[in-house]
Amino acid sequence: MNHPDLGVENLLEEVRAILAPLRMEAEDPNGLLDPPVRDQKIRKAFASIMADNLPRLALGVRHGGRAQVDAALMLVRKVLSKEDIKAFETALTTAARALPLPEVQPFRQMEDDHRPVLELHPTRPHANNDRTVELLADHVPLFFRTSYGRFAVVGECEIVRDDTPTLAIVPASELKIGDLMSRHICYTQVKTDVTGNRSQLEVTPPTRIAKEVCGLAGDYRSVRLLNAVSRIPVLRPDGTVADEGYDAATRTLYVPLPGKRVEIPERPTLADAQGWAAELLTLVQEFPFAADADKIGWLALVLTLVGRWTIEDPSNVPLFLIRAPLMGSGKTLLTETAAMIATGRNATKHGYTSNKEELTKAFASVFQAAPLMMLLDNVNDEAIGGEPLDTVLTSGGEWGTRRLGVNEMFRFESIRTVFIATANNATLKGDLERRVLPITLVPATDKAFTGKDYKIDRLERFVRERRHVFASRALGILAGWFAAGKPESVKLPRWGSFEGWDVVRHTLTWLGYDDPYKLREPLDTENLTKVAENAFVHALWNARHATSISDPNGLTAKQITDLAGRIDPLGDALNELIAGRGSTGASRSVGKVLMTMKGRRVRNSVHGGLLWLEATHVPAENLYRYKVNHDPAR
After folding, report:
1. Full 3-state SS string of 409-472
2. Has this prediction a pTM greater than 0.70?
């Protein structure tokens, strides 16, 4: 609002005119006055002039003209004492504060701008921080992660080749908070223009607020706590189903994939669940499982992934080790099939390293995003286990490590990541053996598993297109077990640290399958098997000169069987080997046994160094040949 009677825009000129006589007297061109007399006269004149104009000048200051008054006073500062100037400024400020502020023009938001308005408080920055956090929590997927004590956002962070967006939990940086503030909040502040008008105007979001909010300088009780993001309905530990969106009970955010939705059938019966289990197992019926129990192990993996939030007290689940004697056995495809059902996309693959520090940093990075699964792919010819993997698997969802580069700790809570490893001839070290559920693939001797002759064409695409059906089937199986009253039809052997995983074990025995814990029994006898394998590798190495076959790739399974019939030490070692595996002496059975030994390393007790069994696929013959290599330097 303008005040024509005030004329603030002309205040500087008016004050100059008021003070002009003082300047003339101060200059005293004729030199008629002594300096003390002159200065006293100037001060009296200044006091009289300012007293007469004080109300008007105070009103000008109140309406934004303080700068003009200050500029005018600069004209006479040289002829007035500091005490005079200070006394006048004090009187002017007191008079201005006693006057009411002019009316503020309200802020007019554009019609297409639907952001909530936040009027910045000039003296209460904490109130601005709290209101910012409150508005962001209401309008954007902003959450608080207790795992690393920071705000986090959930969003699409990458697009994979099948155009399926992936959601991930990402720590909110200062730049990200500032971007969210700009996009979702309209900040305003009272501004006074040169004419004295006061208006609410939009301003740039203050960077100070972004910095302080990112540093948790505010009340974040309105922000929801988040543990994970799910692409399928969340089945709670009591068997109830969480609604779409955020679920406070499990602290999960359910965001369904675009397209057909995953639905959990209401009160499924045992017959329903058995039919759905058979349908899921049909997907993997042509994989070269070592036994039917290994196929049930894969079903246990699927149920663990889709029902991860039903497992608690403790929340640990074993590491699923999908192993085979050679590459091309279908390990990764088998894992991808389970991942596609549970998450709607391929599994993100991670390399494995035996370096403790590097593996710890990898886990810390992964846990920040809280993925449903972590695939340690192709752990080939390497010992797996030890810290920190052993600790994470039995941590009960709580795990801590030092923050990289600073003396602070990450403390991850409610870890629900399922660990899966694929390996060829990997050995278990440390305490990992009791934390593993092995699923073994043994392809036919003559050729590796390629999936080219699979009855379901392009299994990966087939599962992706019908993923909503298979995920509904898996969730329906678990829902059926809960609806039946969580029956415990079989007394299960106790698996220390993994008692919470009995949900999956009881579900499978309720369906009529064996307890997947039985898959661990071979681990107890594998040490004895290694003794027989070592003896066979030595015997085959010692018999290398007793054959006229000069193929550089070695001998076929049939040729090894024939050679064992002529050389007693080799024959005894082979008989001991296949007897321990429950196999026959037929060349096909011998080939299957040799496939499980591919890459077996043995210390040469006579000549030193290492011996290892190599299997080479010969496309022209469509079969494998085997030979023992020797490295004397190791």
Report:
1. EEEECCCCCEEEEEEECCEEECCHHHHEEEEEECCCCCCCCCCCCCCCCCHHHHHHHCHHHHHH
2. no
Q: Express each pLDDT in 1-51 by its tens digit.
A: 344 344 444 555 666 666 666 555 555 555 545 566 666 766 777 677 667
N-term to C-term CA, the chain: 91
Residue 508: how many other CB atoms lie within 10 Å: 22
Six-digit token string for 20: 């002009």
d(CA 337, CA 327) in angstroms, rounded, equals: 18
d(CA 624, CA 590): 12
Distance between CA atoms of residues 325 and 592, nearest Å: 9
- The number of CA neighbours under 13 Å toward the Cβ of 57 is 27
DSSP helix/strand/coil, 539: helix
The one-letter amino acid code at 447 reads: K
Measured CA to CA, the distance from residue 600 to residue 616 in angstroms comes to: 14
Contact indicator for 481, 512 with CB cutoff of 8 Å: no
- Residue pair 252/172 in contact (Cβ under 8 Å)? The answer is no
Predicted pLDDT of residue 428 = 80
* Residues 455-490: tens digit of each pLDDT: 666 888 899 889 999 999 999 999 999 999 999 988
CA dihedral 144, 146, 148, 150 (to 10 degrees): 30
167 beta partners:
156
Question: Do 153 and 140 touch, CB atoms closer than 8 A?
Answer: yes
CA distance 484 to 421: 33
